[in-house]
Amino acid sequence: MSEGTLLDVIYCEGWDPAARALIGRLSPGTARERDATGEQYAVALALPGTEMPLVLFEIAWEHRFARTVHFDQQKRRQSSFEFRALGDDALFLVRVEQWTYKSDDQEEFDPKTAGHVELTFEPDGTGWVERSPHGEGGKSSSTSVRKTVSELTTPRPAFGDWTAFTKSKQLTLRTPDVPDTDPPLPVEERPWRPSVPMRPSGLEEMFTPGTRFSLCDDLGLVEVEVRRAGKLRMPSGKLVAADPAFLDGEPDPFTVTVPPGEYPVEVAVLRFADEPEHLRVAAAKLVVADVPVATWEAALRPGEDTLFLGDGHFHGYGVDSGTGCFADAAALPEKVDDDFIERFTEVKPHLDLALDGVDGNIILFSAGWGDGSYPTWIGRAADGTLACFVTDMLVLNDAQVLTA
Fold first, then answer.
1. What share of the chain is helix, strand, coil (3-state, %, to 5)?
2. CB-facing half-sphere around the CA of 327: CA atoms within 13 A
3. Is the dihedral of CA 30, 31, 35, 40 positive or negative?
């Protein structure tokens, strides 16, 4: 894209890769309203009269998300730059992808032979580069990379200042007269969606006795049982959720704390309809207040930030012993020895474990399908007060609630 190039500004829902066309034409006024409210929209910079985008901006400020996509002459995406909004005045580059095509008729993103480079960056500027210059059929490499934070940070452009996204300051942009705009597309029919971290799903149903789910991948029908696992004594009010085999490593507690005291722990157990003796723990809940939950948020440890997570990713804790637990940060064992680990065999599916010489206890529970990594969520009441912590074992990911 040379300096001085004349391009049309087209507001729309986005790029439809199947139709290879811009869809959902929006008026500038509608796009400006979406920009102000945070609702997603797209902006194409196209060759005059062609609606062939050279650059596409995908914006969803509600999710602090922006992405710049560049196209080649065959309408294939050849690079993308994904940003997170740090506030009203700055964007941080979190991800870059580039594709190299060997011929004009090569399929977009052809995994076998299209070259691919992906860079991801952390808030401190450290990053990782994955290179596959000849696609899956060739050699690949991975290396670390480091940039200064200033290199990865750019001012957040005001609505209409699209040259700031392109870095080509001398582009000439015009907004042509808008023809009849298209009816707004429902969110689920829009051609793209922002990258967002994992959000909790079905936690209320998970702790409603008698709720029945159909598991994904034809794993069967299950019914929820809610069991009391005991009361967690919390002398400090700082909650730790972890694999109990790693408690002597001084795991960090969550940044959100509770008043010191005792709190009930509930375990959501799934019983399989065709095999009633088969039980799985779907989740464990520390009940802070017996009130309805209005909102959910990620439970985070010091230094964690959901802003920089990839699509569908989460901060959680790893499990290698098939067991998770809740404990107070002031009531952790000094040493995890064989005798302590031997107690894990008593977790069927939970165990209230007292420790000698410690003013507290540990409540252990089976970890869903077993080893893995699991998120913990904080539930808040309508007035914002803390209601509960829930560790989701992800057994019910993509499961369907049965209403009959």
1. 15, 40, 45
2. 28
3. positive
Q: 41: helix, coil or strand?
A: strand
- pLDDT over 90 (residue 324): yes
More confident residue, 164 or 152: 152
pLDDT score for 386: 97
* 217: DSSP letter: G
Contact 241, 330 (CB under 8 A): no
Peptide bond into 349 cis (omega under 30): yes
If you write DSSP's letter for every residue of 286-326 in order, what string do you get? EESS-S---EEEE---TT--GGG--TT---EEEESSSEEEE
pTM of the predicted model as reported, rounded to 2 decimal places: 0.84
Q: How many CB atoms neighbour CB 88 within 10 A?
A: 8
Q: Is 139 helix (H, G, I), strand (E, B) or coil?
A: coil
Per-residue model confidence as pLDDT tens digits over 27-40: 999 999 999 999 99
Q: Which two tokens stand for residue 205?
A: 């149903």
CB neighbours of residue 243 within 10 Å: 23
| Helical residues (DSSP H) of 129-182, grouped into ranges | 149-152, 163-166
Residues 284 and 265: their CA atoms lie apart, in Å, by 7
Residue 167: pLDDT band by 50, 70, 90 thresholds? low
Tens digit of pLDDT for each residue in 19-77?
999 999 999 999 999 999 999 999 999 988 888 899 999 999 999 999 999 999 999 99
Q: Does the pLDDT value for residue 2 go beyond 60?
A: no
Residue 146: other Cβ atoms inside 10 A: 11
Cα dihedral 96, 109, 72, 23 sign:
negative
Q: 219, 398 in Cβ contact below 8 A?
A: no
> How many whole angstroms separate alpha carbon 121 and alpha carbon 62?
21
Token pair of 262, please? 């005792």
* Residues 282, 352, 354: CA angle, nearest 5 degrees: 150
Question: Where residue 404 falls among pLDDT bands split at 50, 70, 90?
Answer: low
